[in-house]
């Protein structure tokens, strides 16, 4: 397959790119400031806000054929819901013209709360405090933008509460639209294993348009501790609250916003 990855320089997109290449797929690595580290990856500078550029990039007039599948893994800091919804519509439109499948890597906020299925994680203060609500709500709006479409082939992958760089185990547990918890009691997965699930979905689409995945136990790996919590007693969090890793613009540094 030729897989177009929007956000290929990001935490998720870079791992989807690597996983896709490891399985022998061709990759169009799309972002505004593309990196060019792998000779087998074609970097393309494109602003996902620009419908014409997006159409051109997916049609891949170079040596590759048009994209067979598209992964959308973009975000802005601070969150911009209009950008996210607009970008999603633009990519869904362009992909539908080509008959390409789209996998949107969205937010955990769009999932149902495990203990209260009628309540979205985004609306549940047990997971999302007021200061993170706009981030979670943007993910919900992005899912709605997908669901509004009557045409096109898309799936929306909600990560668990915590998604951070880590180990590739090649294993994960898959669910539908309710937040999952790993056997260690936390809702988390490494970005590497999320990428495994993403490429699995492109290669063999599941039956659920909205699905989630979680770490499948076995080995010990813990996400980096939040330094703000040093010295504080660890609060009881049966499922783990939403944690959002953020990249500090133009520095490449990454931190965790956790409530
Ligand atoms: N627990 C959770 O729910 C959770 C946790 C983490 C991430 N996520 C989700 O996972 C997805 C990916 O997040 P991430 O952490 O990988 O993001 P990230 O590391 O911040 O990377 C964002 C990517 O988007 C690209 N981008 C931003 N604006 C763009 C534009 N106008 N046109 C083209 N590309 C643009 C950036 O590249 P350029 O700057 O070069 O354009 C970069 O490659 C997002 O939907 C995020 O919300 C969810």
From TrEMBL:
SUPFAM superfamilies: NAD(P)-binding Rossmann-fold domains. PANTHER family: FLAVIN REDUCTASE (NADPH). This is NAD(P)H-binding protein. Residues 7-205 form the NAD(P)-binding domain. Pfam families: NAD_binding_10.
């Amino acid at each position: 397959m030729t897989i177009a990855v929007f956000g290929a320089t990001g935490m998720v997109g870079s791992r989807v790119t690597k996983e896709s290449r490891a399985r022998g797929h061709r990759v169009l690595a799309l972002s505004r400031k593309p990196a060019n580290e792998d000779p087998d990856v074609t970097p393309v500078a494109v602003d996902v806000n620009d419908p014409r550029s997006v159409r051109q990039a997916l049609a891949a007039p170079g040596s590759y054929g048009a994209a067979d599948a598209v992964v959308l893994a973009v975000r802005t800091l601070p969150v911009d819901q209009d950008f996210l919804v607009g970008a999603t519509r633009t990519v869904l439109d362009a992909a539908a013209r080509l008959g390409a499948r789209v996998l949107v890597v969205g937010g955990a906020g769009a999932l149902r709360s495990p203990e209260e299925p009628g309540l979205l994680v985004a609306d549940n203060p047990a997971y999302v405090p007021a200061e993170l609500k706009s981030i979670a709500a943007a993910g919900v709006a992005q899912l709605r933008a997908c669901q509004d479409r009557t045409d096109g082939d898309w799936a929306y992958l909600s990560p668990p509460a915590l998604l951070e760089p880590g180990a590739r185990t090649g294993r994960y547990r898959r669910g539908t639209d309710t937040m999952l918890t790993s056997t260690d009691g936390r809702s988390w997965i490494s970005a590497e294993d999320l990428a495994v699930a993403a490429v699995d979905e492109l290669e063999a689409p599941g039956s659920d348009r909205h699905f989630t995945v979680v770490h499948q136990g076995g080995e010990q790996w813990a996400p980096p501790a939040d330094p703000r919590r040093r010295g504080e007693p660890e609060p009881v969090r049966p499922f783990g609250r939403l944690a959002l890793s953020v990249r500090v613009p133009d520095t490449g540094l990454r931190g965790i916003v956790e409530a």
